[in-house]
Fold this sequence. Notes:
mainly alpha; single chain; globular; 79% helix; 10 helices; 245 residues
Amino acid sequence: MAEYIRKAxxxxxxxxxxxxxxxxxxxxxxxxxxxxxxxxxxxxxIGGSFxxxxxxxxxxxxxxxxxGINILSVLLDLFAITAMSSYSFCSRFPFSxxxxxxxxxxxxxxxxxxxxxxxxxxxxxxxxxxAYIAVISTANSGLTPINVLWACQAMxxxxxxxxxxxxxxxxxxxxxxxxxSAVTCLLLFFxxxxxxxxxxxETGDTTMILMYVCSTLANAVIVTQLFYYWNIERVKSKEKIxxxx
Length: 245
């Protein structure tokens, strides 16, 4: 029983912090405070990641449409998440530093398949799913050299920017955010913002930190568009009501 408790505490505290907090009763240790906060944030992000893109999935299913969702942007996003998760897994980073990637990847995959399906490309969606399973299995099997995974992770920085700005351009071209879920976009923004801190504390990996900085900035653009176009649509609705009256 004691062994299980010890393992459970390691999800929140490092060995050093366990000594500082429970042996020395040093509750004001700055380093341990940062590390523990990072782990709590990381676990919170992982918990939240179960539902981050669910509103988007529900919205697509409800409307039976992927209108306004740039499929290439979704696929690039999926690549970025998969590369980050595989690299982190093979680098043996703490699960709290990257675990949300597992659930975000699964949800992004579902979104990609749904968009393809509702765009009339069901066969392509099935083929893509099969190919993705093969790729992710190979990437995490230990057969893929770590330097290859690092290269894929490094590619995430431009890919994240390109994927988000492609979606931003689609929004701009349409004059609307279409089927994009505001809840999902906001959660992605705050999640990537928090990940900057957790990546600094738990991995120290420059590429991961830069990726989350870029992701936060790009997500901020999408969130800004959501509010901007939401305000425009609200004004248009009011004008229509006035004309009818």
